[in-house]
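Appendix B. Extra example for self-study. Work through it before the problem class; the solution is given directly after the inputs so you can check yourself.
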Amino acid sequence: MPTRIELVLLAAFASTNALAADVVAPAHPLDDPAAVKAAFAARIGKPVHVLRLGFGEHYADAIVQNDAAPDEFDRFELVPGQPMKDGDPQKAGSIDCKKKIAFAEVDLAVAARLLGEARAIAAANGYKKPENVQLGSDIFCRTFGWTALLTSETNSDAILELTWAPNGASPKARELKGDHWASVDPKKLAAGAAPPPPAAPKTETAPTPGDGRKRNFLSGIDADLARVEAQNGAPLAIKHLRFDAKSLSLDVFPPNTRKKIATWIVDDDGAIRKWREDDTIPFDCNKPFATNEIPLAQLPAMVAGAPALIPPMAQGWVKGVSIYRSGLCGAPHVYIDVEDDRGFGNVEYDARGKLIAAGVQ
Amino acid sequence: MRSRRLLFAVLCLVTFVAAAADAPPAGDYAWPNLTDFLKRLIEKVGAPVKVYKLSMDRDGKVDLWIQDQQRRDLVDSYEYENGTMSDAIPIKFEHYPSIEAVDHHVIELTTIDFQRLPSIVATAKQKVGMPDARVSSIELERGDSSGFLTFTDIPIWTIHLDSPRHDGRVELSLDGKVLDADKD
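Solution. Structure tokens for the complete assembly:
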């Protein structure tokens, strides 16, 4: 005894052209997933495999591979109640993963059930309601099945991924923790005991407003370093300092720690803000230097004279300046980047203001 | 005198392409009027014209990089679009090239057989099995073909093709020999 789906598919394949002319998507996909599949079948009109299929009440789409011409891929879209358009040809090169399932084996009733499960889990645990479930391969092209991604209103970094086999079996869940995934016990999800982790506290402090005076940092940074130092609350322990005409930024160790690096930015109107604070990088040079270790008073002259030190770039201009410890963890050096219409050059001074190198890049 | 001879030679060379440009086959590439462009360029910069790189985009806009014969370590770009040629645009390299490097890289304009271009494009389409593909860009620059193990830095035409289902790229020598082809 053929099922309803099989009858619809037979009819679709038997009279492809007649049906394809006026295929209208069902108005309520979740209430009648079999009709959704029948509409796709009629619009596609030939035997295909499915590489990806998204399914929700507002929208569904599928990327399929022609069984008779394996390098032909098309994307079909379904909007409830609307006529279905022809497939949109896809570049073969854009198909990164060729894991697939025969269209006849796709069960959209399973998809509707899984979407309901995902929404129940989202509601129980405080995630946003997912729009759809997707059938396809994971990003590394290792597995193939249904996926629902749950995100959080309160923490934009929180992601809970629910996966199932193509037949809806073998449910799994994992959450993103920093830079790795951690499995989540399905019992905890069912009990509503796996809420999204709280958002990390923001390290950005309220900016100090500008003082109305426009700066050109290439003409001097002494006064603004003193202003940042006042904000920092302690003498500056600098790891990296860089500036151009319009901005000055400093990576400094916060007072009383060598395990963090804070980045301060001064805009050309004088506004100061602590942009971010990160952990230091192990084995990096984390030996700070102070402002009195660099030739601050000579900097404007060094900057102004840098292009002339590079013979073909006398007409050039200074693009930016960096000050950091040279070599592996040597004394702080001043590196001046020069630019002209034809290329780039570099000038390097040591901490005492002695010219080390000047040349085109 | 040398400029005039070069101009005459170039005009002879590009006349065929110019004719193709006037009446390109339907759906084919929007051939730019290279005759007009090169004639005006030679009038402006004189001889010899040494090509660092030539590129033509989907719409037939041409970007030609040539070596400055007064400062041979410098390269200027001249753009040609809808019958208008730009002034020289200085090319900025990530690393300042030496005169020797630029001398080695450039291709004498007179050695470029522009008459071959339409057949080169046809060969490229045939090679990757994309007879109805559009030309998305054409480039000429000296280099090593990824399809040939050579270290000779030969001038290479690269034809980029585009169709709804595939992209193609074919490298050919100046005389139209296919060096490498790929399609995805």
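Self-check: Chain B has two domains: 2-111, 114-183. If your reasoning did not lead you there, revisit section 3.
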